[in-house]
Amino acid sequence: MLELVDLHKRYGDVVALDGATFRVGPGQLIGFLGPNGAGKTTAMRAVFSLVQPDAGTVRWRGQSITRDVLLRFGYMPEQRGLYPKMRILEQLTYFGRLHGMSKSAATQAGTRWLAELGLGERLDSELEDLSHGNQQRVQLATALLHDPELLVLDEPFSGLDPIGVEAMSEILRSKADSGAAVVFSSHQLDLVEDICEDVVIINEGRIVLDGAVRELRARSNRRYLDVEVTGDDIPWDQVIPTARVLLEDGRRTRLEVDRGVDLGAVVSGLSGRTDIDHFSFEPPSLSEVFLEAVGA
Amino acid sequence: MTALSIIRLVAWRDFRERARSKAFIISTGFTLVLVVAVAIIPMFFTDDEPPVYQIGVLEPAPGLQDQLDVALADQATAELQSYATQLDGEAALRDDTIAALVTPDEIVLGPSADARLRTVLPLTLGSMDLLERARAEGLTDTQVAEILAAAQFPTRDLEPEDESETENRLFAFVGTVLLFISLITYGQWITIGVIEEKSSRVVEVVLGTVRPRHLLAGKMLGIGSLGLIQLTLIGLAGLAALAATGDVAVPAAAGMTVVSVVLWFVLGFGFYSAAFAAAGSLVSRQEDAQNVVFPISMLLIVAYFIATTGLAGDNPALRIASLVPPTAPTTMPLRMVAGDAAVWEIALSVTLMVTATWLLVRGAARVYAGGLLRNGRRVRVREALRTAQS
């Protein structure tokens, strides 16, 4: 269990973290969301002692983070970086050994991961000779090589093609399934909704939402009504006085309504005027929950 | 993972990757060829054979050959040529067959007679003449020898020159020059190595497990030792080439001299390479490397020039410079080997040096840690220290 407790950090006048608190448990796959500059990277760096918080603590299994604990973590920073002129297997072996693996174990694990990521033929290539996507794969292997108990990835999906996204999702999912705590930041909210059960949303250095995606959506006071009708324009302000029309596209209309709206009244109000071809009533998507939470 | 094993891993990676790089292999090969060439080429232009003087005589001169051999020792040899008449002899002088012609009355010198011959020949003939006259006066050879011995005036230098002291000083200065050259070259390698790590952004991955000061120490050790190995290779190649041409005169420096020169080399290398590493952590682009190392290079040049004044002997500037850290590594060894430094001075200087290096490594690690995660514009030292982790 990783715990970030009441982290504060400011850079001059800029507040990066303002009391951020959240947890990542073993077997959990958590999407860490927030607008640019919300404090995601600072929080992730704090886990690795790369940033010293002004106040607050980071704990792993109830203990503070020591160098020995860090050896069991895997990290993929937002700004990717490896040694451009170093051969990729040697590079992986080096990082494995920095994490306390023996030379042979590190070489073995490196060979296995590179084969798994489709780079089995390129073991002795220098990193800079690989394509951008393949360099990303080596970076991922660097984070996974030592079979970490905690995996922290800053924007792992950025710059990946759909096949890469699929492969990355699968790897993250299977790491979590095997018992590791996994947390990653992303701006691709649809993707996060697809692969994560839980999310943490940060805004201006504070955690504004934290929990299961399904619950967060259900907890929202808003609902979305999609209606498709045959016939005349509907005077929506008469049918549902509190509704806000989001989109009107021919016969299709999307409305934002309160959670407690009387659906029966809406349906009967409509059916007197026109034929209903489509009627759906849904909680907000993760994107909508997100926008609501960060006040956009 | 102990700190030591991490430092060793980091050092070994830096050592191996750099040793394998084309730039390193080419520059080492090129320098080796250059050094050997410089050592060997003069051999083709210098003629070290002792000169042979051809000396003409008009009548047999018994004993002259022996006397000349004694007087010339192994500096030169003389060969006597007989001529029937003075005219023949002078003709030989004119066409340079002989350098000098000895007649019963005089010595005639030809154009090829050099200073040594001009001194040795009259003295030799003069003393032979003196011996002849003394014998004619009835003096025994022993008496003549006594008189000649009494005529030898004792001579001494006002200040006796201690050859071993001069040699030691020279040896220590060679150490200073080597330290200077290796820091100017390899110090920049360290700066470049640090910038490489920062500009490729790999440093964030590395610092996820490695402490900044261990990364710093590993880089200094790995790149520094590769540099010193290159220096040793080049030095040995140069010496071997000199030895092969028979031109080598390595001072037989005493054990303590070598120890103090090596000690100060190591202290100086540690101090300055920490400074070069810290400088590298302040910038993210190789183009900026020159700017950040400039103050350190200047300091090094000043330290070097103060050391050059020490070749002539002790002086107040040298005395002060040998006590304070940035200049001590180039100046203290000179004073130590010449016996000019008091024990308390050496103790103070070493203590200050070790303390300063320790503080610098710790400070540099903070600058390094603070500077590494900041990309883009140059980071000010104070800023880096403020944002750094301890």
Can you lay out the helices and strands and say which pair or pack?
The complex is a heterodimer of chains A (296) and B (390).
Chain A: E1 2-11, E2 14-24, E3 29-33, H1 40-47, E4 55-60, E5 63-64, H2 67-70, E6 73-76, H3 88-98, H4 103-116, H5 132-144, E7 150-153, H6 162-177, E8 181-185, H7 189-195, E9 198-203, E10 206-212, H8 213-219, E11 222-230, H9 236-239, E12 244-249, E13 252-258, H10 263-271, E14 275-282, H11 286-293
Parallel strand pairs in A: 3-8, 3-9, 6-7, 7-8
Antiparallel strand pairs in A: 1-2, 1-4, 4-5, 9-10, 11-13, 11-14, 12-13
Helix pairs in contact in A: 3-4
Chain B: H1 3-20, H2 22-40, E1 52-57, H3 64-72, E2 77-82, H4 86-94, E3 100-102, E4 107-109, H5 115-136, H6 141-151, H7 163-199, H8 203-207, H9 212-244, H10 255-280, H11 289-309, H12 316-321, H13 328-337, H14 343-372, H15 381-387
Parallel strand pairs in B: 1-2, 1-3
Antiparallel strand pairs in B: 3-4
Helix pairs in contact in B: 1-9, 2-9, 3-5, 7-9, 7-10, 7-11, 7-13, 9-10, 9-14, 10-11, 10-13, 10-14, 11-13, 13-14, 14-15
Class by alpha and beta content of chain A: alpha/beta
Strand order of the largest sheet of chain A: 6-7-8-3-9-10
Helix content of chain A: 25-40%
State the helix count of chain A. 11
Strand content of the residues of chain A, in percent?
Answer: 25-35%
User: How widely separated are the two ends of chain A?
Assistant: 32 Å
In short:
Chain A is an alpha/beta fold and 296 residues long.
Task: Identify the notable features of this structure and list them briefly.
heterodimer; A: 296 residues; alpha/beta; 11 helices; B: 390 residues; mainly alpha; 4-stranded mixed sheet; 4 strands; elongated
Structural notes for this entry:
The complex is a heterodimer of chains A (296) and B (390). In chain A, the strands form three sheets. A six-stranded mixed sheet of chain A has the order 6-7-8-3-9-10, sandwiched between helices. Chain A has a four-stranded antiparallel sheet with strand order 2-1-4-5, covered by helices on one side. Chain A is elongated. Chain A has helices at 40-47, 67-70, 88-98, 103-116, 132-144, 162-177, 189-195, 213-219, 236-239, 263-271, 286-293, and strands at 2-11, 14-24, 29-33, 55-60, 63-64, 73-76, 150-153, 181-185, 198-203, 206-212, 222-230, 244-249, 252-258, 275-282. In chain A, helix 3 (88-98) packs across helix 4. Chain A is α/β, with parallel strands linked by helices and 296 residues long. The radius of gyration of chain B is 32 Å and the shape is elongated. By secondary structure, chain B is mostly helical. Chain B contains 15 helices and four strands. In chain B, strand 1 (52-57), helix 3 and strand 2 form a beta-alpha-beta unit. Chain B has helices at residues 3-20, 22-40, 64-72, 86-94, 115-136, 141-151, 163-199, 203-207, 212-244, 255-280, 289-309, 316-321, 328-337, 343-372, 381-387, and strands at residues 52-57, 77-82, 100-102, 107-109. The longest helix of chain B is centred in the middle third of the chain and has 37 residues, at 163-199. At the A-B interface, helix 2, strand 6 and helix 3 of A face helix 1 and helix 8 of B.
